């Protein structure tokens, strides 16, 4: 979070932000960080475990059906980024599916790392508390190549006009170049590796 702009002269804005943070299920330390240290909160995130992805997808499809919305085969309720799980939906998700996430308030200067494959509210509309600027970067770590490859496969089934249809992570290219570099280093040091 590189910038948080707090407008001057708007009555009750701090109270509204505090209420949003509290309604967002933030912990007491986060609330104190806002109320006592006067740091600038920029965004409220909700992050879920990657293992709960299918349960969340099933839940969102169920809620969409209850609201009379269609669930086309070539769309995905998580990747479509069309949902924000407010407090009542988060509570219902926990009660009906046993899924509970983590609430994180990102303050000015904070970095938030999202584990590979972890559904999070940024996909479905992170809740900005004030005007803010965030810098985001996708990366592939060796420990999570499997999750990244799995996400790439999910994207392939989305409609061709879907914003996530393309392979943004380029996992196959990452793997190819990592192996190519490793083989190149091994060949360059082949003579020193064979010595006793």
UniProtKB/TrEMBL annotation:
Its cofactor is Fe(2+). Residues 1-156 form the JmjC domain. GO terms for molecular function: chromatin DNA binding; histone H3K9me/H3K9me2 demethylase activity; metal ion binding; methyltransferase activity; transcription coregulator activity. It is found in: Cytoplasm; Nucleus. Its main location: cytoplasm. One of its GO terms (cellular component) is histone deacetylase complex. Pfam families: JmjC. InterPro entries: JmjC_dom (IPR003347), LSDs-like (IPR045109). It catalyses: N(6),N(6)-dimethyl-L-lysyl(9)-[histone H3] + 2 2-oxoglutarate + 2 O2 = L-lysyl(9)-[histone H3] + 2 formaldehyde + 2 succinate + 2 CO2. Belongs to the JHDM2 histone demethylase family. Histone demethylase that specifically demethylates 'Lys-9' of histone H3, thereby playing a central role in histone code. This is Lysine-specific demethylase. It comes from Uria aalge (Common mure).
């Amino acid at each position: 979070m590189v910038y948080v702009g707090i407008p001057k002269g708007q009555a009750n804005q701090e109270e509204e932000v505090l209420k949003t943070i509290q309604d967002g299920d933030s912990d007491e330390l986060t609330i104190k960080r806002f109320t006592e240290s006067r740091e600038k909160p920029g965004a409220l995130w909700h992050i879920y475990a990657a293992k709960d992805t299918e349960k969340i997808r099933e839940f969102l499809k169920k809620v969409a059906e209850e609201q009379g919305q269609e669930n086309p085969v070539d769309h995905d309720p998580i990747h479509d980024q069309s949902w924000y799980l407010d407090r009542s939906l988060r509570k219902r998700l926990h009660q009906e599916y046993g899924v509970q996430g983590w609430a994180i308030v990102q303050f000015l200067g904070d970095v938030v790392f999202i584990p590979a494959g972890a559904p999070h509210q940024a996909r479905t509309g992170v809740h900005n508390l004030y005007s803010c600027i965030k810098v985001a970067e996708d990366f592939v770590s060796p420990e999570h190549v499997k999750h990244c490859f799995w996400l790439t496969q999910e994207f392939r089934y989305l409609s061709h006009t879907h914003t996530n249809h393309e392979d943004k992570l380029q996992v196959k290219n990452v793997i190819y170049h990592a192996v190519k570099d490793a083989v190149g280093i091994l060949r360059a040091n082949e003579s020193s590796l064979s010595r006793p």
